[in-house]
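Following up on my earlier message about zinc ion. Here are the inputs again, as you asked, copied directly from the submission form:
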Amino acid sequence: MAIQFARCNAMLSLALDKQGRPCRYVAKAETDDGVIADMVNHISTEHDIDGDDHVENIRACIKTH
Ligand SMILES: [Zn+2]
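Thanks, got it. Here's what our run produced:
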């Protein structure tokens, strides 16, 4: 089964983690929708960004491993 993934920094180039370093989070799932749900949750909780506004950006960054 292929794994889909998207890097937080590929989408939000200025996103920083809690130590002030570029965020290295990678959302992974077996489906695009799973990746999007994971990333929406991540940017909402870690970066205080409304992930629902970024669904299309996330979709554009999804790659298949
Ligand atoms: Zn992040």
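One observation from looking it over: Strands lie at 4-7, 26-29, 63-64. Hope that helps, and feel free to reply on this thread.
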